């Protein structure tokens, strides 16, 4: 099978996939299943695949391979007919006899392996800002407010707790003589806020303490030269206050949540089954359909494997692929703070290729796959190379196959 073919564990084809069952099933018995001849793009999810086995039988002193189907996947896509032998020295020899019960056309088109899922438009992951020392909440930034570096998120006992940028969480009081990544992170923020006289490194020196005192004076805090645990909250960048978990006047204990916050960029999050992981590639392009029907181009910004716990005593945890998507034009999302959207993922596509219904494929006893060409009152089997499977059709190539040719659809 050529690169790009999506194959999952062997098993029956899902309803509505367009793929037929194993040998003996009717993949095209109703007129509605017949190809329309249209050459527009086609999209669908993956098609099941698997293996088969064969035994040898002696006839007239000559060995002939006769395949025995063991699963629906002897046909790769659960729609391929039982294996057949060419039965002669020339695989392309035309033979007269019973014609196939139904026919289809070889068409040239764009084949797309894609899938649409529901997503949620919002501001991404929500985090909680919690107090590190007890006291009384005397002020909080309003819901929906945007807070930038150096600005307060809330106050405890009239002491401002400010936002700084960084990935190392505050976990200790910083003072002269300390060293580490958290010291360097603090000094970077002081420098970005316009304070100087110190070297940005991982050493908390007396010069750093002088800059901290100046910063504390500007905030109306006690000028100690130390950064107390709980005086700052670190986030990756500018934040948006999402909700309040306390109210002004509340007495809070260490660890109590005060407010929740998110990033300020609108993002779409979607959850995929593990089987669809091929769709979730960082940097991949998607199409987001908004509630008003408008399509917006998006890019997969992050992919994360998460464990979702079910509800109920007997519910089992489920592994999911969580995808975060950013819009190519963020202004296109204006007016939607939170909304349910549709996300169309594209795993692969082939432009201008020859395709047939998956059910037209024959698994050849000699190995590989073929199709039965119907030419007037005769038929012949020709070997083909398969490519992308999508929407119940498969990309094929090989000698003797051409656009508009007729192939048999075996029962």
From TrEMBL:
The record's region (Disordered) falls at 1-63
Bias (Basic residues) ranges: 53-62
One Pfam match, given by its short name, reads PG_binding_1
Keywords carried by this UniProt record: Coiled coil, Membrane, Transmembrane, Transmembrane helix
Renumbered to this chain, the Low complexity biased-composition regions fall at 8-41
Which superkingdom? Answer: Bacteria
Bilayer-spanning residue ranges: 65-86
Q: Where is the Peptidoglycan binding-like domain?
A: 179-227
Subcellular localization is given as:
Cell envelope
What protein name applies here? Efflux RND transporter periplasmic adaptor subunit
Task: Provide the species name.
Answer: Plantactinospora solaniradicis
């Amino acid at each position: 099978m050529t690169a790009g073919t999506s194959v999952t564990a062997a098993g029956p084809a899902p309803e509505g996939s367009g793929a037929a069952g194993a040998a003996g099933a009717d993949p095209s018995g109703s007129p509605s299943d017949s190809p329309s001849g249209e050459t527009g793009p086609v999209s669908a999810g993956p098609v099941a695949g698997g293996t088969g086995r064969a035994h040898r039988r002696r006839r007239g002193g000559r060995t002939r391979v006769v395949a025995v189907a063991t699963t629906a996947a002897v046909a790769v896509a659960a729609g391929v007919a039982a294996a057949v032998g060419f039965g002669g020295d020339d695989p392309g020899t035309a033979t007269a006899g019973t014609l196939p019960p139904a026919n289809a056309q070889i068409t040239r088109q764009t084949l797309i392996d894609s899938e649409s899922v529901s997503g949620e438009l919002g501001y991404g992951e929500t985090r909680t800002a919690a107090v590190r020392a007890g006291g009384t909440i005397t002020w909080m930034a309003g819901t929906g407010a945007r807070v930038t570096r150096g600005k307060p998120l809330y106050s405890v006992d009239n002491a401002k707790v400010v936002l700084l940028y960084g990935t190392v969480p505050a976990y200790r009081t910083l003072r002269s003589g300390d060293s580490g990544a958290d010291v360097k992170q603090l000094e970077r923020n002081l420098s970005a806020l316009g304070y100087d006289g110190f070297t940005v490194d991982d050493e908390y020196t007396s010069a750093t303490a002088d800059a901290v005192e100046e910063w504390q004076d500007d905030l109306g805090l006690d000028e100690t030269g130390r950064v107390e645990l709980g005086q700052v909250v670190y986030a990756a960048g500018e934040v948006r206050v999402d909700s309040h978990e306390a109210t002004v006047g509340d007495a809070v204990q260490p660890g109590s949540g005060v407010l929740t916050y998110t990033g300020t960029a609108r993002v779409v999050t979607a959850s995929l089954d593990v089987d669809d992981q091929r769709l979730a590639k960082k940097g991949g392009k998607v199409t987001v359909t908004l509630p008003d029907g408008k399509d917006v181009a998006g890019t997969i910004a992050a992919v994360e494997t998460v464990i979702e716990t079910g509800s109920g005593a007997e519910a089992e945890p489920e592994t999911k692929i969580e995808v975060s998507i950013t819009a190519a034009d963020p202004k296109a999302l204006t007016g939607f703070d939170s909304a349910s959207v549709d996300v169309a993922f594209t795993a692969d596509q082939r432009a201008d290729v020859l395709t047939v219904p998956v059910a037209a494929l024959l698994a050849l006893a000699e190995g590989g796959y073929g199709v039965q060409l119907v030419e007037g009152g005769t038929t012949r089997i020709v070997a083909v190379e398969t490519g992308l499977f999508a929407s119940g059709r498969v990309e094929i190539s090989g000698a003797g196959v051409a656009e508009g040719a007729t192939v048999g659809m075996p029962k």
